[in-house]
Amino acid sequence: MNNLFNNKVNRKNTNTYKWDFQTNSDNLPFWIADSDYKTAPCVIEELQEVSKFGVYGYNQVPDKFKEVICSWYKKRYNADLNKEWIIPTTGVILEIRLMLEILTNKGDGVILQTPVYHTFHHVINGMERKIIENKLIKKHDTYIMDYDNLENLFKQGYKVMILCSPHNPVGRIWTKEEIEKVISLAKKYNVFVIIDEIHSDLNITNTKFTSGADFISMYDNIVLCNAPSKAFNLAGLCTSYIIIPNEKYRELFNKQVDREFLNSPTVFGYSATIAAYSNGYDWINAQNEHIKNNYLYLKEYLNKELPNLIVTKLEGTYLVWLDLSYTNLSTEELLDKCNNAGITCSGGVNFCQDYESYLRFNIACPFEQLEEGLKRLVKAFK
Ligand SMILES: Cc1ncc(COP(=O)(O)O)c(C=O)c1O
Questions:
Q1: pTM, 2 dp
Q2: Torsions phi, psi for 34 (to 5 deg)
Q3: For the CA atoms of the chain, what is the radius of gyration?
Q4: Would the CB of 92 count as within 6 Å of ligand 1?
Q5: Are strands 86-89 and 109-112 parallel, antiparallel or unpaired?
Q6: 195 bridge partner residues
Q7: Residue 196 Cβ < 6 Å to ligand 1
Q8: Does residue 168 have its Cβ closer than 6 Å to ligand 1?
Q9: Is the CB of 123 under 6 A from ligand 1?
Q10: Which of 86, 243, 267, 284 is deepest in the core (most CB within 10 A)?
């Protein structure tokens, strides 16, 4: 199956952000978080069936959508969900925004563990809430959480935290113990935890991903936000789901959805999800194997060619966090150099102002593309 992931798909001129909306559309793109793989064959076949039908009127998301999510969580993470907790939506960021509407008022603080996915910053700022940083602690080529500072922030009265799990961009898959510590502290200080699990199936370790679902019986002021979009490359289908075990918050969330006349996923989105979660298990494992091989190659090649660059250890996601501090260059300068060498990456400062000399590099692509991209990266910084 590995070959599936080395097939080049020409995405140029298909209105795709990654290829067609870069600074320079001739660059090889390693920035935005979608992959260059075709989705799983079982999903393509299902979408072909749906498209053949030819009538696309108003639809309701069937119960099967929730059932496959429950069985996926059980099979992949050994986590138990109740299907009543699940609400279909059209984007994880939308879910986070709606939860923040429910949980906070203008001026309230929301805790982020930085560096973290830049859109979290935009949502919080856009809603006129305040970003409260609990900075991750860097340990050479990996990161850990700062529990002392987190507890301090909880003591100061901040009531909402977003936990990115797995963590974009530092590639951590938090262990059961790490998540448990966060949830125990949240319980102690009555803090609501929004857990973004969108990268949960992108796992190149031998250990199962731990879902926040494992802690619901201990503390239910948590929600889990997820979607098949990252792992199955379906972001354009705008289909996601939120898991809200606490009935009060579930009702409030549904009210928000009604109040804003929000659409549910389309027939294409829910059918793709059902196909992916019913039959895509082995495909995901094969994809993870491909990403792992890409990562091992990147690490070896960059260690050899740019020995001062630190490649952050990758456990989950397909986004590699590169530390180019030795260059003393700003994000803008790094991106210029990349652009001149013919590649587009994501710049560090977008994830936290302390990370000027960092790049995020997306490795979910055919090996040949990665190989060429890395050659260009080395040319830019050698
Ligand atoms: C951690 C994380 N959450 C959410 C999203 C976006 O989710 P959606 O497109 O469903 O809003 C991304 C996309 O890269 C992400 O990395």
A1: 0.98
A2: -130, 160
A3: 20
A4: yes
A5: unpaired
A6: 163, 224
A7: yes
A8: yes
A9: no
A10: 243
Q: What percent of the chain has pLDDT over 70?
A: 99
The CA distance from 8 to 215, in Å, is: 41
Measure the CA–CA gap between 199 and 205, rounded to whole angstroms: 13
d(CA 23, CA 343): 10
Q: Confirm if 270 and 241 have CB atoms less than 8 A apart.
A: no
Domains by residue range for the chain, with CATH = 2-41+281-381 (3.90.1150.10), 57-279 (3.40.640.10)
CA of 268 to the centre of ligand 1 (A): 19
Q: Is 368 left (phi over 0), alpha (psi -120 to 50) or beta?
A: alpha
* Cα-to-centroid distance, 57 and ligand 1 (Å): 28
Tokens read off for 63: 């119960």
Give residue 352's Cα distance to chain centre. Answer: 16
Q: Does residue 164's CB lie within 6 angstroms of at least one atom of ligand 1?
A: yes
Ligand 1 atom at minimal distance to the Cα of residue 317: 16
Tens digits of per-residue pLDDT, 298-312? 999 999 999 999 999
pLDDT at 117: 98
Site to probe by mutation for ligand 1, drawn from 35, 114, 117 as the one with most ligand atoms within 8 Å of Cβ, is 117
Using CA positions, which residue lies closest to atom 14 of ligand 1? 33
